[in-house]
Amino acid sequence: MEEQGLRCPGSASEKRYFPESLDSSDGDEEGVLACEDLELNPFDGLPYSSRYYKLLKEREDLPIWKEKYSFMENLLQNQIVIVSGDARCGKSSQVPQWCAEYCLSIHYQHGGVVCTQVHKPTAVQLALRVADEMDVNIGHEVGYVIPFENCCTSETILRYCTDDMLQREMMSSPFLGSYGVIILDDVHERSIATDVLLGLLKDVLLARPELKLIINSSPHLISKLSSYYGNVPLVEVRKQHPVEVVYLSGAQKESFESILRLIFEIHQSGEKGDIVVFLACEHDIEKAYEIVCQEGSNLNPDLGELVVIPLYPKEKCALFKPNDETEKRCQVYQRRVVLTASSGESLIWSNTVKFVIDVGVERRKVYNPRIRADSLITQPISQSQAEIRKQILGSSSSGKLFCLYSEEFASKDMRPLKPVEMQEANLTSMVLFLKRIDIAGLGHCDFMNRPAPESLMQALEDLDYLAALDNDGNLSEFGIIMSEFPLDPQLSKSILASCEFDCVEEMLTIAAMVTAPNCFSNLPHGAEEAALTCWKTFLHPEGDHFTLINIYKAYQDIALNSASENCVEKWCHDYFLNCCALRMADIIRAELLEIVKRIELPCAEPAFGSKENALNIKKALLSGYFMQIARDVDGSGNYLMLTHKQVAQLHPLSGYSITKKMPEWVLFHKFSISENNYIRITSEISPELFMQLVPPYYFSNLPPSESKDILHQVMDHLSPLSTMKKEQKMCEKCPETTEQRCTIQ
Q1: What is the band of 388 on the pLDDT scale with cuts at 50, 70, 90?
Q2: What pLDDT digit, counting tens, does each position of 120-176 carry?
Q3: DSSP per-residue codes, 687-718
Q4: Beta strand pairing status for 361-368 and 373-380?
Q5: pLDDT at res. 302
Q6: What pLDDT is attached to residue 334?
Q7: CB 181 within 8 Å of CB 113
Q8: Model confidence pLDDT, tens digit, residues 556-607
């Protein structure tokens, strides 16, 4: 049934919308005037502050504000609404507030509002900004939920969350009954979680006709979204402002030098405004940061200070959005240079940006299911990404975009849309989630772009090896418990195995440390030797996983015995460790421990330091990471993968690299194919231990190699009883049975 609404003033200049049937004023002008005189905030019942009106004027200047009436009418009369708008038009902050007004008008009878974001920092910053604009408390009426951090209560009306967190919520509440309006923001980013939500919500909308779905996207994806969801209303917002585009085609071959030259030329020109530089990868960010800081200190101080801000999109870093006081001060005394990479577009929130420098290429991770490894490839960005980078320029006056490529390159070499993550990533976690959802009857997912069949088969095969699937291809009891952890399935399996091997406490620490950002600080030039000297104090002879435990335990000891947070930060600085990363590891570990207790897994007392405990930790690790084993084939540190013929070296920060002791067999946590084929976070294992724990049907499927022959000899030397057990398991789980199980609904 269509809902009809009318407008009722909630303040002098803002309009709120209420259905006629629930409008308590019933057309009485005196009642409306009385409400207006009180100036009460309907969300908390308190009078509006003066700051509310200041921010309201800013909101009314946003390009999307003109479309409020159109949006509200479409929201009232339709189940799905698509909002198309350029970057920074206001759709991410205003649309959720309007949806909250709608839910308030019907007394939250269908639930509150949730708005998804692809990036963690964006979710946090939007929640803070919107709580300020709505004149309510963060964490109460407005909140946010990101991995390992929940700033909401049961009373929260509007919550921002990362798309993967809403996806995880569907495991316990498949039809998302707590929400009356779901907003999928930045859909054009095409993350795996957003694509999965787009597909699953089709079924949820059919089951819940009262539920509203809002899809926010850049204009480039609108035609595809319209065909995917059918004939649904579209609200279009355009942010028009002049931008001068300068193509520097000759600069592409020497892009790094051109970037540095442009930064200093802009600064010396005296033109006001901050600079944003889009580089290819994080390595380039670090390199540019060091050079610009070094060279910037030699510039004429009369031009103002050059403040360099590295912005890493993948980390939980602060967004580039200073407060009002800093904004004014920086315009007078400072010019900021923000160095970022692909996906950093949504993290730039400052109106002071007047110059953008774009290299036009990015380094992407593309997963190869045949070798179970990522390849780091450099390729042109898409035309849609290039357009979004243009749109972040400040709207108060004309900006200037420097493209370090030609117009011909933009039209011929750049693809129209950003690559879909689902077609380039490891899908094992996604398939585990879909299998879990299938228990609730939502196993079918109509993807906007279907993933490659080979990637799906590899994901199913891996889950089968990890014992997450039963003989019918459904989730086993192991698989159900594994899906409870917000981790990679291999890491979840290692935690479950640690219950059997009495090393849960140690395995939780390892899981937290490898999930958090890198705990080692980026080193300034000349500090390498001092840093290595400090890091050697944490090295453990058994491997890097054990070294991470040492670092975490040292951090915990300092945190418990320090009088202030400054002491902890100083300790981290002195030892060249990343304090934010260690703090995050502490938070992650606490949540993982809470999950272990909630599902009542056995948890033994910590015994780190004993030989038996070290062996048990390796057993737990091997239970999850038996697919990530390598052997030093020539005794000089050239490690050949057991699953394929790629050769890699230990990372320079590995304890084995520092001590120059290269073990023959190692278990590793990460491997990417790039210029330097490094395996990261490695620990020594014995082939005997590997053969005791590897699933026999996985071992039988390994390609022929010298390493496999050595392992066969090891198996022959194992006890006859062990061999009989393995043969029995191989009969139970033959390749034909495995092939039959590897099907997805």
Answers
A1: confident
A2: 989 999 999 999 999 999 999 999 999 999 999 999 999 999 999 999 999 999 999
A3: HHHHHHHS-HHHHHTSPP-HHHHHHHHHHHHS
A4: antiparallel
A5: 77
A6: 80
A7: yes
A8: 999 998 878 889 999 999 999 999 999 999 999 999 999 999 999 988 888 8
Q: What pTM, to 2 d.p., does this model score?
A: 0.86
| Whole-number pLDDT of residue 27 | 45
Contacts of 450 (CB under 8 A, 6+ apart): none
Maximal C-alpha separation, the chain? 93
DSSP string, 156-212: -SEEEEEHHHHHHHHHH-TT-TTEEEEEE--GGG--HHHHHHHHHHHHHHHH-TT-E
Sheet of strand 243-247: strand arrangement:
243-247, 399-403, 353-358, 274-278, 334-340, 305-310
Contacts for 455-458: CB closer than 8 Å, 24+ residues apart: 455/367, 455/369, 455/423, 455/426, 455/427, 456/427, 456/431, 456/744, 457/369, 457/742, 458/369, 458/370, 458/372, 458/427, 458/428
Which two structure tokens, joined as six digits, stand for 224?
């595809």
Residue 87: burial class (beta carbons within 10 Å; 0-12, 13-18, 19+)? buried
Closest to 493 (Cα-Cα) out of 429, 552, 440, 425: 429
pLDDT digits (tens, 9 = 90+) for 187-233: 999 999 999 999 999 999 999 999 999 999 989 899 999 889 988 99
- When mean pLDDT is compared across 296-305, 495-504, 599-608, the lowest value belongs to 296-305
Q: Are 292 and 263 in contact (CB under 8 A)?
A: yes
Helices (H), 562-683: 565-574, 579-598, 611-625, 655-659
Using an 8 Å Cβ cutoff, are 466 and 490 in contact?
Answer: yes
Strand partners, 82: 215, 234
pLDDT in tens, 681-693: 999 999 999 999 9
d(CA 198, CA 75): 18
Instruction: Work out whether strand 373-380 and strand 639-641 pair parallel, antiparallel, or are unpaired.
Output: unpaired
Is residue 32 within 8 A of residue 9, CB to CB? The reply is: yes
Is 217:81 a contact under the CB 8 Å cutoff? no
251, two tokens: 């600069």
Residue type, 667: L
Ordered domains of the chain (ranges, CATH): 50-237 (3.40.50.300), 244-315+331-419 (3.40.50.300), 427-484 (no CATH), 491-623 (no CATH), 627-717 (no CATH)
DSSP letter, residue 239? -
Residue 715 tokens, joined: 């198996």
